[in-house]
């Protein structure tokens, strides 16, 4: 399959991994938008949040559990961070393998509110 993130999972494209479990991996974004910018992805190829099925519930929960653990590991759990999921073109999605951006390490500008 022609998916950059599936290639990262199988190891044919290198990445700086910061977390790995049975169903989830996380690695540093190649073009960081903040001092900490990590992508958290399911090992299962799910293109977008729109494609999440009922049976994927547990793996979605695992993505958020991984985010909490990585935030602690990176030392930003208390100072704070932001989780973002871009969906399709208007949402700014470029890679069509579900991922959550974990951003932090500085005061982030307000997006909403
Ligand atoms: P999206 O816009 O789809 O939500 O975010 C895709 C993200 O993947 C971007 O922040 C981009 O910098 C990152 N990215 C794209 N290609 C690669 C790659 O080959 N390696 C890594 N580590 N990140 C990538
Ligand atoms: Zn994929």
Automatic annotation (TrEMBL):
Q: Which InterPro entries match?
A: Histidine_triad_CS, Histidine_triad_HIT, HIT-like, HIT-like_sf
- Pinpoint the HIT domain residues: 4-113
Q: Pfam families from the xrefs? A: HIT (PF01230)
Q: Where is this motif: Histidine triad motif?
A: 97-101
Gene3D superfamilies per record = HIT-like
- Superkingdom assignment: Bacteria
Q: What is this protein called?
A: Histidine triad nucleotide-binding protein
Q: Which organism is it from?
A: Paenibacillus glycanilyticus
């Amino acid at each position: 399959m022609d998916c950059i993130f599936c290639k990262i999972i199988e190891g044919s494209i290198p990445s700086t991994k910061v977390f790995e479990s049975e169903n989830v991996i996380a690695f540093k974004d190649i073009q960081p938008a903040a001092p900490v910018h990590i992508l958290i992805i399911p090992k299962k190829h799910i293109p977008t949040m729109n494609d999440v099925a009922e049976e994927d519930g547990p793996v979605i929960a695992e993505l958020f559990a991984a985010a909490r653990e990585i935030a602690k590991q990176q030392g930003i759990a208390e100072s704070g961070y932001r989780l973002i999921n871009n969906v399709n073109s208007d949402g700014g999605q470029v890679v069509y393998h579900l991922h959550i951006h974990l951003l932090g390490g500085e005061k982030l500008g307000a997006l909403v509110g």
